[in-house]
Every structure is written in C-alpha cells, then in structure tokens.
Structure prediction request, 274 residues.
Amino acid sequence: MRKTRQAVVTGRATEAHKDFATAAGEFIVWCRDVDYRDHASTAQRIAVSFASLVAYLGDMPVVGIEAGEVEAYKEHRAKTNGVKDVTIRHDLHALSLFFQYAERMRWRDGNPVHEVKMPSDANAVRIHPLTRNEEERYFKAAFNVVDRAGRRNLYDVGRIMVNQGCRPEESMSARKADLDIEAGTIRVQSKTPAGNRTLFLTPDSLDILSVRLATQGPWLFPSERYPGNHITKLNNSHDRACREATIAWREELEKAGLPAEASALSETDPVALA
Prediction:
C-alpha cells in the first residue's frame, strides 16, 4: 500500500512538471475527441490558436506559467506577429480553456488568464466557420470559377488554405522557387520573420501546386491582369462562388419541399475556410 501511494504521488509530481507543448497536445486531442466531438469547427479553431501558443510557450512547465507570461504572449502576438486584437482574444479564450482542463488534470492550480485584461472584439469582423456541408458546396462552386487561361485560382487557394492553414496572401504570393517537389514542402514567406516557415504538403496540396509549375513567371499564382506579378485578390471570384453555392442550395431545398432560408455563405469571409 505504501509503495502504491508513493507511486501515485510520484506520478502526480511528474505530471505537475509537464511542459506546455506536451500538455497542449493532450488537450487538443481531448477537445477533438471528447468535449467538442460534435463541434468540429470549434475544436479546429482551438487547435489553430494553439499553434502560436505552443510556438511561444513551448517547453515551459505548465505549473510555471503565470499572468506575466500570458501578458508577454499578448505583446508578442501584437508586436511580433502583428495580429489583431480579436485574434489574440481567441487565443486567450483557448488558453483559458486549457488551464481549466489543466486544473482538472491536477497539473496546476489557478487560471492566469483570469488575471489578464482580455482584448476587445468591438470592431472585429465576424467570421462564420463553415460546416462540412457548406464547405463541400463552396468548393463545388469554386471549382467552376476559372480565369481566361483556365486556372482555378479560387479553388486552388482555398484548398491550400484548408490543407495547410495558410493565409490567402501567403498562398497567392508563393514562388515556384519555394516549392520542393521531391521533399513535398513549400517555404512560406510571411509578412514578419516569425511567420516564415516550411510546410509539409498534403498530397492534395502537392498535386495542386505541381501543376502550377507549368505557368509562366516566378509565381505559382500569376496575375492575369498584371503580367509579372502574382494575384493579390480573389474577392469577385469568392463572391461568385458564394452566390452560386447559395442558389444551388436553395434549389435543393425547394425540390425537397423545405424552406429556403438565407445561407451563411453569402457573408462568408475567405479566412473562414481555414
């Protein structure tokens, strides 16, 4: 009995010194498979926030993270990464959920996020995360949107965003020289040094980008309107895909004898795809 009790205490002591990256991995799996198993978009949103949290807090012991470290993270995201307040707010909400989980797992006591001022979301643009059905309808419509050369810029950029977690501008400004077909990677050139990174491509992403090596110029997404430059906007193509997806959806509802309510796709921000 004494040995058993000692083993339990020792195990808890080890758990108490768990580093943030390891603990975050367990938390993300728990969100996906347990707490948010019926809300995949919420679990994905948390996982996205944790990409930057793990990069910053990394090997720091969970028990050692206090309000000062959270404040430093806020400053890092604002000044180094240049993200908006609403993004930091999302990160901190995800981090707060993590510390609640950490308390239940007896990794630590207290939630330091409660001691930190939460950034305002008063001027935030509301983004609607797509459901699986909405995503399928969107990409079905996007596939039919092509430029004069027959390139599916909207579809391809959207798939790269979903597969790799890239921002639209990171995909559109990608250079052919940054794509390594043999390694299956692409080097992302971001607005800030901290955002520069190498991504391992999914088979779908690799297929999409490999075909684009046949285009003229140094860009994977060359501009049709401004030769020698890459595309910078897909707003019109995106709006068209949303309209066509919405029309098709309403027609399906009418055929089924169901009320054709307004579709959220009409107000979808491209970032919602990621």
Summary: Residues 176 and 218 are 6 Å apart (CA to CA). The longest helix spans residues 235-255.
